[in-house]
Specification:
The structure is a single chain. The strands form 2 sheets. The chain has a 4-stranded antiparallel sheet with strand order 3-4-5-6, with no helix packed on it. The protein has one domain (about 30-105). Strand 3 (about 50) and strand 4 (about 55-65) form a beta hairpin. The radius of gyration is 14 Å and the shape is globular. The chain has 2 helices and 7 strands, in the order αβββββββα. Helices cover about 15% and strands about 40% of the residues. By secondary structure, the protein is of the alpha+beta class.
Length: about 110
């Protein structure tokens, strides 16, 4: 079971600051438009961020859940210290870890 927690995350519910055992993972939660499902999205702070010409970093994620066929696109913008400064979500919305945990609990 610990192997799965390390692979998929688990433990510390600190939102975008990563999970215990995954200090390089940034976690965000996206709810595609028209879906009850909330998808947890992981961004590796060193491997998945691209440098921007104007400074800082950005990441683009295409999101599709397993229970809903609607997709969403997430763009994240970071400063030079890899701290989130802005985001956009096409066809969905960014929600917090509490909403994600509540959704998971409802799934049984």
């Amino acid at each position: 079971m610990d192997f799965l927690k390390k692979l998929f995350g688990g433990g510390d519910k600190s939102g975008s600051r990563g999970f215990g055992g995954d200090p390089d993972g940034l976690y965000y939660y996206v709810q595609p438009r028209g879906c009850d499902e909330i998808v947890r999205v992981r961004v590796h702070r060193y491997n998945e961020l691209s440098e921007r010409d104007e400074g800082g970093y950005w990441a683009h994620k295409v999101i599709r859940g397993t229970k809903c066929t609607q997709g969403a696109e997430l763009d994240l913008y970071f400063d030079a210290n890899r701290k989130l400064t802005n985001h956009t979500v096409k066809d969905g919305s960014l929600v917090d870890a509490t909403a994600y945990e509540a959704w998971v609990t409802r799934q049984g």
